[in-house]
Amino acid sequence: MWLLQFFSSTQGCPGPSIFTILPTWYEFLPKTSIKGACSPALTSISDIWLIVAAIIEILLRVATLAAVVFVIIGGVSYTTSQGSPEQTAKARSTIINALVGLLISVSASLLVGFMATSL
Predict the structure, then answer these.
(1) 3-state secondary structure of 24
(2) What is the pTM for the complete model shown?
(3) First CA to last CA distance, the chain
(4) What is the DSSP string of 33-62?
């Protein structure tokens, strides 16, 4: 449950997002309410870095999704290897590499989110 909240979190006004997993490009920008509608506010030139951080966050979440897909592919390959040592080793390698990529992308995503909210 907390993982879903992490991946679908938007600060302030919720905006449209793809699959409710990817954040919007204005996730870290301050929001203003104009006639009841939320909109991002560019208050200074340094807000460009917040947009860059949000784009990096989107790319890291795509990498996380790709890593999960590769874990599934590796699991299916492992299951269908029928005891063949080469296929089993290849599938195990795919799973391990995908898990390392998953760890790196989730850690980087947390770091970018922390840095962007502290700016």
Answers:
(1) coil
(2) 0.73
(3) 28
(4) EETTEEEE---STTHHHHHHHHHHHHHHHH
**Which residue blocks in 1-119 are alpha helix, DSSP H?**
2-7, 47-79, 85-118
Give the tokens for residue 76.
């299916």
Measure the CA–CA gap between 53 and 66, rounded to whole angstroms.
Answer: 20
User: Tokens representing 105?
Assistant: 């992308």
As to burial, measured by CB atoms within 10 angstroms (0-12 exposed, 13-18 middle, 19+ buried), residue 25 is middle
Q: What is the tens place of the pLDDT at every residue in 43-61?
A: 888 888 888 888 998 899 8
User: Quick one: pLDDT at residue 2?
Assistant: 41
Would you state the structure tokens that stand for residue 53, as one six-digit string? 């951080």
Residues 6+ apart with CB under 8 A from 30: 12, 40, 41, 43
